[in-house]
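1st attempt posting a full record on here, be nice pls
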Amino acid sequence: MSKQPTFSTTISANPYRKDFYTGSLNGISSIDSPSFSKEQYAISFLNTKGFISALIGISKNVPDDDIHDALENKVYEELALDMAVEYNIQYIEATNRMSESERFFHVFVVDPLTLEQEFAPIIEAIKYIDQIIPVPLLLKSLYVKEIIHSNHAHGFIYFQENDAFFTVYNEQEFIYTKSLKYSLKQMHERFCELLGEPIDLVSFENILATQGLNATNPEYQKNLLKLFGEIFLHVNDVITYTKRAFEIKQFETIYIGTAVGSIDGLDEYAQTYLGLKAHPFDFDYGFKTAEGNIDQIHQLMHLYARLESDERYECNFTLFHRPPPFAKRDSGKLILVTAAALATALLYPGTYWGLSYVEEFHYALMKQEYEHVHIEKMTREATVNLKLANKNAAQALLDEQKTAYKQKQDTLIQVHDKKVNYPMKAKIAADFTRSFNQYRVKLKSLGYSEEENTSTKTFSFMLTAPKTQDITALLKHLTATKQDRYDFDLQLISYDSNSSTYLSELKAVLK
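the predicted structure (as tokens):
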């Protein structure tokens, strides 16, 4: 069994909350002002939003020395990664995935800019990080240390301040992980929406930690149950997919927890909603501490740091290595070379010695500067290419949405015009007929027309009456009662000697 180098202390760092815990022997405690020390082992993690994970298969004929290159090529192809970005890729073999022709690996992909940006404050404080591991792999230590003994399938749900994850282990090996929708901050925002009034995040976390789902305020309790109903609806979909994709017949246990501590009633609610046996994600790691609640992730990091190297998953994303021995540092090599050159140069006249030293020192400085500038150039070019690609994709989506919006807008305008402005001809004709009968005027024929350019709608009534006074009285009545809706036009009243009646055409233009 290979041994880890011996360190007097271990320090764990949460890059998202910027908090630290230090531990020695079986004790663990928070530390407000961490500092650099060669005697401490530093460990941190990436949350599930910080990396891409996938199960990748390659031929069994690929030699072990070529596995990394083969996986890298396939990851860029299958995940459609930007070829201009040199992603940091780590992997572990999926030993429980069998195939006659392929070997399968769980691959984790991280943008190097993410590492530099997320861990900059940590590096400023402690100068280096020995290991940065994807958070779901920390759960391996629960099985190595026999905190969980069973070989059956287990699900782990953990809500952090900026993320939440669902992870599956089967036969004590990592199977699958997924970032969930609801971090503690997202829970807080959704809870305020349901409640209809804002409360601060600290108060919300305090309610969860001290009162749980049985909050004393009835409105809080009602909306907390509704919130976790939405959460477990999402979780149930993820569990259904996982069982189907990885051929898991049943989960033995689902462990549920949060960074603020156990939530009273949450495991019972989950068990009822999901139909699975649920326990709190709150394990006894054997650490002694004077503090109340300690984030489970910090305790898992301390537990993981104490594993032997062959008990861990070899998946380390750190870019921030501890200083190497003096003779292996660039500066050390430079000093040693300079010392050797000085000793040799003592055999020659002082002039030649001085020139040789100056030139060697100048060359080392220029080379070091070139390497730094070259790395910065490549990083910035990759960033620019990524931003341009995102911009073009966003612009294409925006143009598509604008076109769809314009089409829907035109359709709605047409529907509205037909619904609001289209005249009900039968209703209008019946209305006018009542007025005609009232004044003893008969309707001989009815016409209707629309002008396309002006959208003018006109009703034409051919009227007959025994007296001209009946028609004029009718016109007077219509003008008085319907002038808000129609413009009336009656040009001529003629006499038909054959029928001994008066004829007239009345036009009503709809306003």
